[in-house]
Design a protein that fits this description.
By secondary structure, the protein is of the alpha/beta class. The chain has one domain: TIM Barrel (Alpha-Beta Barrel). 37% of the residues lie in helices and 13% in strands. The strands form four sheets. An eight-stranded mixed sheet has the order 5-4-11-12-13-14-15-16. A three-stranded antiparallel sheet has the order 1-3-2, with no helix packed on it. α2 crosses α14. The longest helix has 26 residues.
């Protein structure tokens, strides 16, 4: 099987020669740029500065030689970023205050304070010298029960959507060529991130406040979501006819509906204010690109929402955080069955991967993947990103456990 054939067969619940694997297909199956150089060294690969394509989570774009060494089957396109082909013109040196020899898209987005704190003024975020990711005051989501529940400015949202549509049109042919180059250059499955729905339970005013707005003024939320969905449908109608043969997995939305213990909001809120719009987008993608699989990222204890995600016509759910909500891999697999493919869940990323031995990591990966791959419908990755503290030996053990 080619790598693409392997991924697509798995997602279609067909027999595969082995479980397909992903590292960095999207910004929740990736690896910290601080862990990445150690991994390259441990794999015996020559040093290369990590391409830091997500400068909030500080994620490295995996190079093809790393994907080869770990036998991974997926590449990403997060326009204009991709690891399917080389794009040296995009990348510029930046050392994050002397901490990391790296490449970034826009060095001017950063400044460094006297104490070594790296600042992203445009995002109002900072990374202190002893941190590995950027953060904001109150996580950027100040919460007060004494104030009126804030709401997005619909005119500002509409202006932002119009600007995105204009930029898409200006760069349209270059974007199509990027997809065509990627398809021609690799036999790996191509996952697309960043062209779907920009809406979520914590997307606008934060995970503490937007659920309140959903309860207080659902009609306002419907107007907001209608606006965003219409823009997405127009974008897909314009783009998919040109790139559908170059896209295998389309990330429709990355929307975290779960905490460590249960869903963030009522299932009724998902069914009434989110699922109808998800269904519209999924239906259009399936109509315009029948071979493409639609993908939902939702962290946390969302096993109880799997039936709703299926009703919204998603094909794939990630990251399979079976460690949350007193659940198990068996419970996730039993509920998903052959109706919804699972992507991730290969190891407990909060405990076993950073703190366990390589043998413990490998044992858990083998046990969990055997459950989640039963009957097909599974792509292997960790539960969320591989963090800066994870030893390279554990990362190698994670992927080679499936050999």
């Amino acid at each position: 099987m080619t790598r693409r054939d392997r991924v697509m067969a798995a997602l279609n619940f067909e027999p595969v020669d082995r479980i397909p694997r992903d590292l960095g297909g999207m910004p929740s199956t990736g690896i910290s740029c601080f862990a990445y150089p150690r991994l390259r060294a441990a794999l015996g690969l020559p040093p290369r500065p990590p391409k830091v394509y997500d400068t909030g989570q500080m994620l490295a774009l995996p190079d093809v030689d790393v994907l080869d060494a770990l036998d991974c089957d997926v590449v990403t396109i997060c326009p204009p970023v991709t690891n399917a082909v080389e794009t040296p013109e995009l990348w510029h040196p930046f050392d994050f205050g002397g901490r990391l020899d790296a490449l970034v898209l826009r060095p001017d987005d950063f400044s460094v304070a006297e104490d070594g704190t790296v600042l992203q003024p445009g995002a109002a975020s900072r990374m202190p010298p002893d941190a590995f990711v950027f953060d904001q005051d109150h996580a950027g989501q100040l919460f007060s029960l004494d104030a009126e529940t804030p709401r997005p400015d619909l005119e500002a949202v509409q202006a932002q959507l119009a600007g995105e549509a204009e930029r898409l049109e200006q760069n349209f042919e270059d974007l199509v060529r990027l997809f065509e180059r990627a398809r021609a250059s690799t036999d790996r499955a191509i996952m697309v991130f960043g062209l779907g729905l920009g809406m979520g339970i914590g997307e606008f005013t934060g995970v503490a406040l937007f659920p309140l707005l959903c309860m207080e003024d659902p009609d306002f939320v419907r107007r907001l979501h209608r606006m965003i969905t219409d823009a997405a449908l127009r974008r897909l109608e314009r783009l998919l006819p040109r790139i559908r043969d170059c896209v295998d997995v389309f990330v429709v939305t990355a929307d975290d509906w779960g905490t460590q213990h249960g869903p963030i909001a009522s299932p009724d809120i998902y069914r009434g204010l989110f699922a109808p719009y998800h269904r519209e987008v999924n239906d259009l993608i399936h109509a315009l690109a029948p071979k493409t699989k639609t993908f939902l990222h939702s962290c946390g204890a969302v096993e109880s929402l799997i039936d709703d995600f299926i009703d919204a016509r998603f094909d794939v759910l990630n990251p399979v955080q079976w460690t949350a909500g007193n659940s198990s891999p068996e419970a996730w697999k039993n509920r998903a069955g052959t109706r919804l493919a699972l992507w991730g869940g290969g190891v407990n990323s909060q405990e076993t991967l950073p703190w366990g031995t390589p043998d413990a990591v490998a044992d858990e990966a083998r046990r969990v993947s055997a459950v989640l791959s039963r009957g097909g419908g599974y792509v292997f990755a960790a539960i969320h990103n591989i963090l800066a503290e994870v030893p390279p030996e554990n990362i190698i053990a994670l992927y080679r456990a499936l050999d």
